[in-house]
Amino acid sequence: MRSLNSMLDEYALSHQNPFNKTIHKFCVPTIMFSMLGLLWLIPAPKLMGEFNWATIVTIFVMLYYLALSRKYFIFMIPVIGSMYVGNHFLAQTNYLISASIIVFIISWVFQFWGHKVEGKKPSFAKDLLFLLIGPIWVVKAVFKIND
Predict the structure, then answer these.
(1) What is the pTM (predicted TM-score) of this model?
(2) pLDDT of 51-74, one tens digit each?
(3) How deeply is 7 buried, as exposed, middle or buried, from its count of CB atoms within 10 A (0-12, 13-18, 19+)?
(4) Are 48 and 41 in contact (CB under 8 A)?
(5) How is residue 46 annotated by DSSP?
(6) Mind listing the pLDDT tens digit for each residue in 5-48?
(7) Sign of CA dihedral 122, 103, 62, 18
(8) 20 to 30 A from 125, CA-CA: which of 6, 49, 76, 118?
């Protein structure tokens, strides 16, 4: 497994333009939020009890973050936790599906616009794991974490 620092460095190579960086700081979290919402909507087998697919995927993502870095794992707990709570609230309404789809599409449009301005392909085009590295990159930038 590659180190988190090497993946963050590689991710940063295609995120140098200030416009693209700003777009990612907003759109990476909204994509993650909407993905959790979409996963929430997938019917779960009865044997999963109160768990849903968003819960299962979140557990595996958090285990991956823990394997990469305890520090970023701890930072991601409130980030993903707040997304989970937001989706739980939306699930109590009739807006989860429409909100998740609309936010997902709009966020990806902006992401691709940012990469067009940057002039570089998104990192996940090379390796899908970068879809999980993006949120850590945002947390590192927003909270100004130095390694």
Answers:
(1) 0.93
(2) 899 999 999 999 999 999 999 999
(3) buried
(4) no
(5) G
(6) 999 999 999 999 999 999 999 999 999 999 999 999 999 888 88
(7) positive
(8) 76
